[in-house]
């Protein structure tokens, strides 16, 4: 081998080593982020009202002097991953940490804390075993029961998931303002699997003449109070859905297999007027072939999370189309949003 080829081969090997080490240690980025939230570092920086020095941050956190240097190294990783910036030798917030503030009405902090909770992280250790098993989900291989049964048994688990979904919905509800035309002119709307009603509440406030209903499991909506144009109904979306001009359904179908989705979609179709009704889905659309970018990879991560948790999936446009036609709908329109989700209008 000539010396040039040998040098190239060595360079390639070290590049591969760096690649492997980066991915092997990626979980440290996640854990650093989680620690920052547990320590409420974004709120501390926000409340300081100017760039905060390491010493002031350590003092606000009550970190013993011996741990000032570890704190600096934690912050170095978080600056590198874009959660904080450095200005005038102090730490400041970035757009990503601004939506992690506990004090802000729009915060993704509960979502991060739920996804990185040991209850949702440890099942990943069973991924390989699950692939060789007949179990429906990785979660089941790990905990010996599905996520719904586990929720009935494990105190706090359902609350953890509901808080995460509500925080995601508060952010996603900005699409209602961004795409008012989707909701304009509707006299009534039912949010199927609407959880604690975060999204429906926003719609009902922005459209005070629209009658809004949230349908979710009885135990989810039992204690929830509505308003003049918002009510909560306990029920089962597989059985029947209250009638309305439109059915809204956000981050629900990605929890279910194709077979179950067709059942839900058929119930949705029965609930809306045959001619003028519509279904408004807020879900992800995997962009085949282009999923290498940051947005695309994030959708693939969510797809894996759904697979692990409940045997659900994120879908490509072709897969969505198949579900709509199979459930008796005739056509659809995809409206991309600036975030990870799209709005999909589906017509009878
Ligand atoms: C992933 S959460 C989405 C919640 C909400 N749409 C959001 O985006 O914040 C799925 C929701 O479906 C509800 N759900 C599950 N099975 C249901 C059923 N059979 N009938 C009605 N709702 C159901 C769950 O209770 C949960 O609130």
Which features would summarize this protein structure in a list?
348 residues; alpha/beta; Arc Repressor Mutant, subunit A; two-stranded antiparallel sheet; 49% helix; globular; binds S-adenosylmethionine
Provide a descriptive summary of the structure in words.
The protein is an alpha/beta fold and 348 residues long. The protein has helices at 3-24, 26-38, 41-48, 54-60, 68-80, 95-98, 109-115, 118-121, 127-131, 138-143, 147-153, 157-172, 174-178, 198-206, 218-221, 258-271, 294-310, 317-326; strands spanning 84-87, 90-93, 188-192, 211-216, 230-234, 246-250, 278-283, 285-286, 315-316, 331-336, 342-347. Strands 5-4-3-6-7-11-10 form a seven-stranded mixed beta sheet, sandwiched between helices. The mean pLDDT is 94. The structure holds S-adenosylmethionine. Residues 165, 168-169, 193-195, 198, 215-217, 220, 236-238, 250-252, 255 line the site of S-adenosylmethionine.
Reconstruct the topology from this structure.
Blueprint: H1 3-24, H2 26-38, H3 41-48, H4 54-60, H5 68-80, E1 84-87, E2 90-93, H6 95-98, H7 109-115, H8 118-121, H9 127-131, H10 138-143, H11 147-153, H12 157-172, H13 174-178, E3 188-192, H14 198-206, E4 211-216, H15 218-221, E5 230-234, E6 246-250, H16 258-271, E7 278-283, E8 285-286, H17 294-310, E9 315-316, H18 317-326, E10 331-336, E11 342-347
Parallel strand pairs: 3-4, 3-6, 4-5, 6-7, 8-9
Antiparallel strand pairs: 1-2, 7-11, 10-11
Helix pairs in contact: 7-12
The structure holds S-adenosylmethionine (SAM).
S-adenosylmethionine binds at residues 165, 168-169, 193-195, 198, 215-217, 220, 236-238, 250-252, 255.
């Amino acid at each position: 081998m000539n010396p040039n080829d040998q040098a190239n081969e060595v360079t390639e090997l070290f590049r591969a080593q760096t690649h492997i080490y980066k991915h092997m240690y990626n979980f440290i980025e996640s854990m650093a982020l989680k620690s920052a939230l547990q320590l409420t570092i974004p709120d501390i920086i926000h409340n300081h009202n100017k760039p905060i020095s390491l010493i002031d941050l350590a003092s606000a956190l009550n970190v013993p002097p011996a741990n000032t240097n570890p704190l600096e190294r934690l912050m170095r990783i978080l600056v590198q991953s874009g959660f904080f910036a450095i200005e005038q030798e102090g730490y400041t917030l970035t757009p990503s940490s601004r939506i992690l503030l506990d004090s802000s009405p729009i915060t993704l902090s509960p979502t991060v804390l739920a996804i990185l909770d040991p209850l949702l992280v440890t099942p990943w250790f069973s991924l390989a075993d699950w692939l060789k098993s007949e179990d429906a989900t990785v979660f089941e291989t790990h905990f010996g029961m599905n996520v719904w049964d586990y929720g009935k048994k494990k105190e706090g688990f359902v609350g953890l998931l509901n808080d995460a979904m509500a925080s995601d919905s508060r952010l996603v509800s900005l699409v209602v303002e961004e795409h008012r035309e989707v909701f304009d002119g509707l006299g009534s709307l039912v949010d199927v699997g609407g959880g604690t009603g975060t999204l429906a509440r926003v719609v009902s406030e922005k459209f005070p003449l629209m009658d809004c209903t949230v349908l979710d499991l009885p135990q989810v909506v039992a204690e929830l109070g509505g308003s003049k144009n918002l009510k909560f109904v306990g029920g089962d979306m597989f059985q029947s859905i209250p009638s309305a001009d439109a059915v809204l359904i956000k981050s629900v179908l990605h929890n279910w297999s194709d077979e179950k989705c067709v059942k839900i979609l058929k119930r949705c179709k029965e609930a809306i007027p045959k001619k003028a009704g519509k279904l408004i889905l807020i879900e992800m659309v995997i962009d085949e072939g282009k999923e290498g970018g940051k947005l695309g990879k994030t959708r693939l991560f969510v797809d894996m999370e759904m697979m692990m948790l409940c045997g659900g999936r994120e879908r490509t446009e072709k897969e969505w189309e198949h579900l709509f036609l199979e459930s008796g709908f005739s056509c659809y329109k995809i409206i991309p949003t600036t975030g990870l989700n799209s709005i999909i209008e589906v017509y009878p």
